[in-house]
Amino acid sequence: MNHPAQAAALKRPVPPALLEALAALFEDRFSIAPAMREHHGRDESSYDPMPPDAVVFAQTTEEVAQAVKLCGSHDVPIIPYGTGTSLEGHVLAPSGGVTIDLSQMNRVLAVQAEDLTATVQAGVTRKQLNQEIRETGLFFPIDPGADASLGGMAATRASGTNAVRYGTMRENTLALTVVTADGRVVKTGTRAKKSSAGYDLTRIFVGSEGTLGIITEVTVRLYPQPEAVSAAVCSFPSTAEAVSAVIQTIQLGVPVARVEFLDENGVRAINAYDKMNLPVQPLLLFEFHGSAAGVQEQAQLVRHIAAEHNAIGFEWATKQEERSRLWAARHNAYFAMLQMRPGARAITTDCCVPISRLAECILDTKADCEKNDMIYSIIGHVGDGNFHVLMMIDPHDPDDVAKADGVNARMVARALSMDGTCTGEHGVGLHKMAFLVQEHGTDAIETMRVLKHAFDPKNIMNPGKILSW
Amino acid sequence: MNHPAQAAALKRPVPPALLEALAALFEDRFSIAPAMREHHGRDESSYDPMPPDAVVFAQTTEEVAQAVKLCGSHDVPIIPYGTGTSLEGHVLAPSGGVTIDLSQMNRVLAVQAEDLTATVQAGVTRKQLNQEIRETGLFFPIDPGADASLGGMAATRASGTNAVRYGTMRENTLALTVVTADGRVVKTGTRAKKSSAGYDLTRIFVGSEGTLGIITEVTVRLYPQPEAVSAAVCSFPSTAEAVSAVIQTIQLGVPVARVEFLDENGVRAINAYDKMNLPVQPLLLFEFHGSAAGVQEQAQLVRHIAAEHNAIGFEWATKQEERSRLWAARHNAYFAMLQMRPGARAITTDCCVPISRLAECILDTKADCEKNDMIYSIIGHVGDGNFHVLMMIDPHDPDDVAKADGVNARMVARALSMDGTCTGEHGVGLHKMAFLVQEHGTDAIETMRVLKHAFDPKNIMNPGKILSW
């Protein structure tokens, strides 16, 4: 899949002196090997790779600061890289430059169990964190599917399945350590749960996709592992009924921990991929957290709501293994869908709308996919009004690409017309820049540009993402 | 109480041409009457008034934009004013200028009950909003005590008693309409519950105290009125035991809706003021929201925790009238304390620390107050690690002022040493600017300054607050 012609034009020269200086600083953690560059020039989007000129593996905030200063002194772009699981081209290098791989910054620096907080280096992944804190009785809830790094998740304002109950990285990031474009190291906050002390630097950097600074440490909120957890699945005769059941659940204030929607295509794919036997119909997958009695109460209420919407079956999974199998299947939906069209790549887009418009938005988007003969699935964190369209395309078939782009553009236009957003959790990257302008309008975009220009006057921080210069 | 000498030096000339233009625009909603200016030059802090040169009452966003453009063309400061209930001098006019009173922007513009959202003009107060939405079965939870305007609450990143369960204005503001320093009207977001679409303009303006732009409309999240609500009060032999009970409640993840601490001084004051008979001992006041069974389960758990910490009595208040009486008493604590020293004014300061340090922070602060013979009370939203010190002083007695300033400065230093913040919910205003620098350090403050200079290059938006120029 090609990129806008403009991208290549932005390529900036990387002087040998810079490469030498970085090589001296990072030694065997510096590379210009084509395979290494290529690996760092792609994410899980369908874009062809756009490799950086060099890759360095940082181990400390100080090293990141030094790399940024060096690149800054040569006006060379610098691109942070965590696990490469972004979906909109966030880590590609359209202007070339130097990628800072943060995966070796993988230490959990502090767990303050009694405060329900932890501070980690940016390269720590969510699964690693949960592994390391398991014995404290706490957990970190944000789960975007991929085992992403906390730094990347903060930079993308990630969320996922648990957000309906626990919030997103926006709500769960207490403080960051950030290297700014001039190489300064800024601590954006404290471990206080709330604060009115000045501008919200933390949330300026959360979601900024590396374009305002590089996140090197993240302090997050943790939660007590619930006393009881149960899951439930039920199928529905139609998408409309499934989504209506969710809308009612949310409107009644039932504190579900997760509520995921899979359309019949998604169900068919995971049945094949995970050897499951779910009815090939729209499916809701719930998880309840609370006390034993509380979980039961929530489930009964939801069962009642589901029945009112003609749900077929309402299966309980209170055992850990059953629950894990269901959620693994949900998380494998991306890979399962890829198998539905061998050799294809997936375009995964997302949007988020006010909950009352969710059924309409999903149904119209499904109709559009059908009309365009897409091999697709709609899967969503529907409790938040957020859903994904996965489209299996041949990235080298211009027709295929054009069709998928059309579905995507119309989905975004639809979401915006409903007072929703062009991306609920994937971010803007390269691919949603035009949509961002549609969503926010000229005055807000200009305000964002004022921020970008002030924080990164040389445009060296992951340039060409979120906003055009 | 006097102000830093620097303030007067900043006074800027307000040319007659500007006053004439504003008078023509606002007609009888323009005033230079001394009483009007004086009223708008003070808040609930102990500062002597610093009146603006003129006051205008805006009724629309467009009028605010016109006023900002007029003031901008003369480099004259502009100060937004809601209900005047700020506590750190936020609305004072140390450089003179024009106050825009937003209290006439008091329309609830839209209630989207099915989406659990509402959009209001900035002058709508929280009580007014709750009154207008009562029949939808929803409520707006943020409750800072004062019946503040939603615009002011957003600008101050306010929170209050319900924040432990429902979050603060940071979490509950979905979108804003803001007039920026150049008079542009910016919409910062949509009604989507979550978004990864670009920089978080909403949270840049939330907590910016009018120094980056003037908030004219606020879109907030609403919540279903809980099926059941109950309150409980219990007294403790010591502050340490009361606070430890709270810490354990939070660490166990009990979803209390409110948990308020009053020390024995606060209890004594409200007994006198509200004709109540509470034991003169440290007190916790809980509120539980949920299903009938859930509320009972929470209360039982808390009762058990309280008993382990030697609580004396654990009284239930399930009836609306009893609950309202208790909460009214809590909310009257400020006025009740004023009666403890007739003629005094209150200095009300706040800080917020990680919950594990809360007992220590409160105890050391109490000891400091005692040592300095203050007439004081400590009252707090302790579930968040947030507490207030109310000190009754004679603002014209330099000794009194110096003592209170000392207690305040040491409390902040203590909170910062515990990785807490210099203000959990009151904001910076004029009075906490030096503490802000202590808290964030030079690099973070410089980053805040870059933001301020970029968004307000002429320093006309509520100048002299949060940061020095």
Automatic annotation (TrEMBL), chains A, B:
<dbReference type="InterPro" id="IPR004113">
    <property type="entry name" value="FAD-bd_oxidored_4_C"/>
</dbReference>
<dbReference type="InterPro" id="IPR036318">
    <property type="entry name" value="FAD-bd_PCMH-like_sf"/>
</dbReference>
<dbReference type="Pfam" id="PF02913">
    <property type="entry name" value="FAD-oxidase_C"/>
</dbReference>
<keyword id="KW-0809">Transit peptide</keyword>
<protein>
    <recommendedName>
        <fullName>D-lactate dehydrogenase (cytochrome)</fullName>
        <ecNumber>1.1.2.4</ecNumber>
    </recommendedName>
</protein>
<dbReference type="GO" id="GO:0008720">
    <property type="term" value="F:D-lactate dehydrogenase (NAD+) activity"/>
</dbReference>
<dbReference type="InterPro" id="IPR016171">
    <property type="entry name" value="Vanillyl_alc_oxidase_C-sub2"/>
</dbReference>
<keyword id="KW-0274">FAD</keyword>
<keyword id="KW-0285">Flavoprotein</keyword>
<comment type="similarity">
    <text>Belongs to the FAD-binding oxidoreductase/transferase type 4 family.</text>
</comment>
<dbReference type="InterPro" id="IPR016169">
    <property type="entry name" value="FAD-bd_PCMH_sub2"/>
</dbReference>
<dbReference type="GO" id="GO:0004458">
    <property type="term" value="F:D-lactate dehydrogenase (cytochrome) activity"/>
</dbReference>
<dbReference type="InterPro" id="IPR016164">
    <property type="entry name" value="FAD-linked_Oxase-like_C"/>
</dbReference>
<dbReference type="Pfam" id="PF01565">
    <property type="entry name" value="FAD_binding_4"/>
</dbReference>
<dbReference type="GO" id="GO:0071949">
    <property type="term" value="F:FAD binding"/>
</dbReference>
<dbReference type="GO" id="GO:1903457">
    <property type="term" value="P:lactate catabolic process"/>
</dbReference>
<feature type="domain" description="FAD-binding PCMH-type">
    <location>
        <begin position="47"/>
        <end position="225"/>
    </location>
</feature>
<dbReference type="InterPro" id="IPR006094">
    <property type="entry name" value="Oxid_FAD_bind_N"/>
</dbReference>
<keyword id="KW-0560">Oxidoreductase</keyword>
<dbReference type="InterPro" id="IPR016166">
    <property type="entry name" value="FAD-bd_PCMH"/>
</dbReference>
